Amino acid sequence: MSKLQTKMFMKARQELVSQLTRRAFLGRSAVGTAALAGLLGRDGFAAAGGGGALTHFAPKAKRVIYLFQSGGPSHLELLDYKPGLRALQGTELPDSVRRGQRLTGMTSGQKAFPVVASKFGFAQHGRSGAWVGELLPHTARMVDELCIVRSMHTEAINHDPANTYS
Predict the structure, then answer these.
(1) Exposed / middle / buried, residue 160 (Cβ in 10 Å: 0-12, 13-18, 19+)
(2) What are the Cα distances from residue 103, in Å, to 9, 46, 72, 106, 125?
(3) pTM above the 0.70 mark?
């Protein structure tokens, strides 16, 4: 990483950290979500009425394995099926996605930002009908035993600032 890239990263990180309040941290983090779920369950929301407002079935999980794969395969190739991307393939990334956020050092020289759909196929699997990419054949066979979290969200479009909130 060049000195300029390091300086730009540190400035972006400092801006993000300065905007991070306790409420924002808890609202955007897996730890905050787990803590909130624990508190709601303890205080009666999940306990009331055989599962309450948060779940439609009694929880069975005894353990959780949280995989955060920075540098791993894209979610768009594995578990995040986006069929609409095929229709947009090759078109320019809409401004509504970037919302004026600055480009990374890696993309700053690009003249175009085309939408790219997954190169791999997806199919529905298990009783749940979860969409799983063809790169995960074993996972597809056991998908009903998994909890796939699709509620992670960040305002940052670039990877490093987004990872700060993961």
Answers:
(1) middle
(2) 11, 43, 21, 8, 37
(3) no
